Each structure stands twice: as structure tokens, then as C-alpha cells.
Fold this sequence. Notes:
This protein has 233 residues and is an all-alpha fold. The protein has helices spanning 20-55, 58-63, 69-76, 79-100, 108-125, 127-138, 148-170, 180-196, 198-205, 215-231. 72% of the residues lie in helices and 0% in strands. The longest helix has 36 residues, at 20-55. The protein is globular, with a radius of gyration of 26 Å. It starts with 19 loop residues before the first helix and ends with a helix.
Amino acid sequence: MVVSSSALPAPLPAPERPGARAAGPIAERHRDAERTRAEILDVATSEFADRGYAGARVDEIAAKTSTTKRMIYYYFGGKEQLYVAVLERAYSRIRGLEQRLDVEHLDPVEAIRAVCALTFDHHEAHPDFIRLVSIENIHRAEHIARSERLSTLNTPALDVLGTILARGRAAGTFRDDVDALDVHQLISGFCIYRTANRYTWRALFGRDMLDPGRRDQQRRMLGDLVVAYLTAG
């Protein structure tokens, strides 16, 4: 006898895995928490950069987000911890870019120019980072010094520079009396100065160091200066 498909019993549903029903809401709550935390850090970055550590207010940060002062304390613990988290994220971003820079296929001179260009572009695009660095120097780096995370960020980035310098020395292109921190100082000094002193420079000399019309020339200048130093002697 042929049995029509309509007469067959419906298939039994697959057994539900323990916790499957709760996984969706839990994952969504986790995503919401990450979004809220990121939003707080975005607003806090602007507030600390504009008003300094002393002038920034957690009440004001809460008012500019979709959360409350109580939730800010829940996520971060307090104003100082929030400020340190802002610094950690700001430094992590530039250090991450440095570590991911693909320079293995470049000769040492072009690799150094690539590092210069990356730092130049980042610092120009993130003036809040420059202001935060300046503010933390006013506080003699007391907050950075308390961050275990920040103390481990710099070594991998310096390793990238160190590898490039070693390749340049091995090729007979770079001088051998310079270390990675020297070069990092040279690059950072140029890039930070352009943004940190933009307004005083413009008031005193009538020139905007971030003038788009001079950008390409300034970018090349940095690479030329660093390469000239490394190949001198």
C-alpha cells in the first residue's frame, strides 16, 4: 500500500541543547555591553582631551552617552580608571598599527619611510591622542605608570624598528650607533610637534602646520630627515 506524504507523522524536533535558548540573549547582552563600553570610551576620550584629567567630569561624560554615571563606575570603577582605560586604548591603537605594518618585503630605507608615514598619518588623524599625551606629561605620567597593560605595549613595536635597523646595518646602509628608541623619538617628536603646537605656531608664524597644502611635503620631509640621519657617517 502506498502511503501519501500527508499521512506521515511530522518529524520530531531536534533535541534542544542545554543552554541553547539562553545563548542568544547572553550573546546579545555581551554585545550591548561592548557597545556601551566603547561609547563611553569615545566620549571620555574627547572630554579628557578637551578638558584635561582634572577638568573632565564623569557626570558630563554620562550625559553625553546613552548610559548613566552609575554604569560608568560599574564598567570602569571610577574616574581615574576610566582615564587609564582611555590612555590604554589610545596607545594600543597606534602600537597595533606599528606591529601590523608589513615591511618585510621592503628594503630597509623604504621600510623606515613606511614607519614614518604610518606615524605621521596616525598622529595627524588623531589629535585627541596628542592632547592626551600632553596632558599625561603634565601629570608626570603618573597614570600611565600604574597601567600594567601600557608597560607591555611598547616592546613589540620597538622590535619592528629594531628589525628594520638590523637589516639596514647588515646591508651596510645604516649607521651602527643608533637604537630603535632613538629612531622612535625622532619620528614621534616630529609628528607630535605638528599637532601639539599647531595653534601657537600659527599665532607666532602665521603658518598652520596641518595645512593640507603642505601635508605631502611635510610627510616627505619626515622620511628624508630620518633616512638622512640613519645613513649619515
